Amino acid sequence: QGELELSYLTGGLGWKADYVANLVGEGTRMDLSGWVTLTNSSGIAYRDAQVQLVAGEVNRVREPVVSPMARAVVMAEAAAPPAEESLAEYHLYTLPRATDIQNNQTKQVSLLTAPGVPVTRELVARGQPMPYRTETAAGWTQQPVESRLSFLNQDGSLGVPLPAGVVRVYAQDSRGSAQFVGEDRIGHTPKGETLTLKLGESFDVTARRKQTSFRKLSGTGAYDYAYEAGFELQLKNAKPEPVEVKVLESIPADWRMLSESQPHTKESANLASWRVLVPAEGAETLTWQVEVR
Predict the structure, then answer these.
(1) What's phi and psi for 130, nearest 5 deg?
(2) Can you tell me the distance from the alpha carbon of 207 to that of 237, in angstroms, rounded to the nearest whole number?
(3) Residue closest to 102 by CA, chosen among 173, 167, 42
(4) Global confidence as pTM
């Protein structure tokens, strides 16, 4: 006689990660907590099971399966966070103790708790490259101003591999109540990476733009053209304090800046950026002219 270990793949078992970020103080830090949601629709109950979760993109050959509709029971366990380790090209999370997972059950377990994670908040207005190839209609067009939150997954505040999932962000109002201010999905994120969440669009800071000039310089086809295009971006701020808006402009092909109302930064081959300070209850205008080949 001897011990036999049987390994097999089964369908109907799954998990996902969810995160809650509570902004604290002046919104320069957040308390981050993460949860793992386990689901079992396999038709079998697993009792006293040692659960291990693999985070990463594991390739599987998918067969078409029709899953039966089932009513799930949601349970939550406040337990110690799972132990984490590297596994080949993935990360393995092992729950600290055995658990029961009933059939048609959804169960939540704690993944992480990270208080006081430094964050950076910024407003971003981003344009598209198409206006550089054609003459656009006259007049202003509205452009969204996104509210973004960034943080570094580093030791001292966080510093653990984060499975893909949705991050929901809350901020305190004047009465100290938590209010939902936006959410975004993150991918699998190793240590040392910066994550940027799009929370929504600003209510008080708005942007509009128009093409001020367009001229074809040379060329007869798609591969030998040369254009010159000018633009104006007007930013308005209804807040009682000044704000800084990061303007990102995607410019196609080989380009050079001919003129601009303030210096740009070339962030990549096809991306220019400006940081524009908009006064309290005021407006600021950014202009630029580019040659594209």
Answers:
(1) -60, -40
(2) 9
(3) 42
(4) 0.81
